[in-house]
Specification:
The protein has 3 helices and 8 strands; from the N terminus they run H-E-E-H-E-E-E-E-E-E-H. With 192 residues, the protein is α+β, with helices and mostly antiparallel strands. The protein has a domain of 102 residues: Immunoglobulins (Immunoglobulin-like), CATH 2.60.40. The strands form 2 sheets. Strands 3, 4, 6, 7 and 8 form a 5-stranded antiparallel sheet that branches. Strands 1-2-5 form a 3-stranded antiparallel sheet, with no helix packed on it. The protein is flat, with a radius of gyration of 33 Å.
């Protein structure tokens, strides 16, 4: 076999061959004096942020979770108001408000707080209701002095939805015997 001679004419290089290989940039972590590195194990969230605020979250239909922060200035103002009123601090409480359908307070209950508490699980015990909380002080006179109020939340209901959407409903025959949806069985029984 004869070998082919290489032609003296060179073809134009393609655009792809003109491209240089991409250089990978090395990203260096930013070191800051205000944010310690995580590798050193020194990074921690602050215990307080210096803001008076409260938040209420829903855990499930029966339980809520509250967390709060009250600055020393707000607490001192409250103690000063109590002194002017001629009464003294008896205890700190978390007051839970249950709202009715007209956005009026339907009921309240208090939870006594130990010193230093800044979060609490609340056994609301009533699904499908709206709640909010206030952190405050009960004076020796029985008066309540609120310090901070949370957002309002609605606890979900503790039952299945009564609305059946035909678009998403399982179809008959889709499941093996014994595994059909309960409402398919109830519809079949009611149509007999």
């Amino acid at each position: 076999m004869k070998k082919k001679k290489k032609s003296a004419v060179r073809s134009k290089p393609s655009k792809a061959s003109k491209l240089k290989p991409a250089r990978r940039k090395t990203v260096k972590p930013v070191q800051s004096k205000s944010i310690p590195s995580r590798e050193a194990g020194a990074f921690q969230l602050p215990a307080q942020y210096g803001q008076t605020r409260a938040a209420l979250l829903v855990r499930d239909p029966w339980w809520l979770f509250a967390y709060w922060e009250v600055t020393p200035e707000i607490r001192e103002r409250m103690l000063h108001r109590m002194t002017r009123a001629g009464t003294h601090l008896q205890k700190m409480v978390l007051r839970v408000y249950e709202m009715d359908s007209d956005s009026a307070v339907a009921s309240t209950f208090d939870i006594d707080l130990p010193d230093g508490a800044d979060r609490w699980y609340v056994d609301a015990g009533k699904p499908d209701r709206v709640f909010y909380i206030e952190i405050g002080a009960v004076a020796t006179s029985g008066s309540f002095y609120p310090l901070v109020r949370s957002n309002a939340v609605r606890a979900p209901r503790a039952s299945l939805s009564e609305a059946l959407d035909e678009k998403w409903a399982p179809q008959a025959g889709l499941y093996p015997d014994g595994f059909s949806a309960w409402w398919l069985r109830s519809e079949a029984l009611s149509s007999r």
